[in-house]
Amino acid sequence: MATVAVRSTARHVLPRVAPTLWATSSSCRGFASATSAPAQSKKPLRMLIMGSPGSGKGTQTERMMKHFEMEAISSGDLLRKHIKAGTEIGTVAAKIIAEGGLVPDGVMVNLMTEELQKLKDKTLLLDGFPRTLPQAEALDVALASNKMPLDLVINLDVPPEVILQRIEDRWVHIPSGRVYNLSYNPPKVAGKDDVTGEPLSKRPDDNVETFKKRLDNYFSMTKPLISYYENQGKLRSFHGETSDIIAPQIKEELAKWYAKQ
User: Which residues does the annotated region (LID) include (predicted)?
Assistant: First the structure.
């Protein structure tokens, strides 16, 4: 993926909110570091984590996996893998994302179904999929056919202005997927990955103008999805401006589910 460095004047308008990442110190909030093995559920638990682009789904997924045994499937990671490899799906997805759009349902359903078939009898967490009602319905069919019904939907509710500031300050090391943020998780050397020393990049869609379009698309497309899972009694929404505010809420909810499984 080509390196793109875009700076926006929106930086001077948006309120700066600096969310903090999970840390190993016992004094940190949220999911503190675990000194024992992740908790196991008595039977497989099927979960989905939802949230707009930039809401912190990846961060919360990492924290959950530290404390609860599960397998995670990230639609974003899968797409980036295909984009990097230059596959047919990756080429189509790269063009759509660069223009601020969302990848079509058919492409995502095929991509995720292929991954789901690799998981049997395991607790799993889907990240970033489904994003539309047709995708959710297709997912339910796929899970039901494999006797893996969805149990819980975790919805991250983060204010849009906070998300836009995060995106403005986000840089990534494309080969490893390591993410840095100039506000709260900067690289040790400006513009360089901490581990390899290689240059950091801006994802093509990591600019405020494009992200505003993505947020508008996301909220429009997922409104029916929220209602869909709410009507099924599976939706749990967690509100906050930082990952450390939301994390303990999720941990408390998951502890209940793992205890009763």
Answer: 169-206
In a domain, 14, yes or no: no
Domain encompassing residue 126: 40-260
Q: What is the pTM of this model?
A: 0.68
- List, as residue ranges, the binding site for AMP: 75, 80, 101-103, 128-131, 135, 203, 214
Does the annotation count 166 as an active-site position? Answer: no
Instruction: Give a yes or no: residue 35 inside a domain.
Output: no
> Which CATH number characterizes residue 107's domain?
3.40.50.300
Among 116, 119, 207, 123, CA closest to 164: 207
The string of pLDDT tens digits covering residues 116-172 is: 777 877 889 998 788 889 889 988 888 888 778 899 999 999 999 888 888 888 899
Among residues 173, 182, 181, the alpha carbon closest in space to that of 203 is found at: 173
Chain-centre distance of CA 194, in angstroms?
Answer: 22
**What is the count of structural domains for the chain?**
1
Q: Residue 229 contacts by C-beta under 8 Å, 6 or more apart in sequence? A: 48, 136, 153, 155, 235
Q: Is residue 82 included in any domain, yes or no?
A: yes
Q: In which element (H, E) is residue 178 found?
A: strand 178-181
- Known active-site residue 178: no
Which tens digit of pLDDT belongs to each residue from 192-209?
999 999 999 998 777 788
166 or 239, higher pLDDT: 239
Q: Of residues 57, 63, 166, 202, which has the active-site annotation?
A: 57
* Mode of pairing for the β-strands spanning 178-181 and 170-173: antiparallel
Interatomic CA distance for residues 205 and 82, integer angstroms: 16
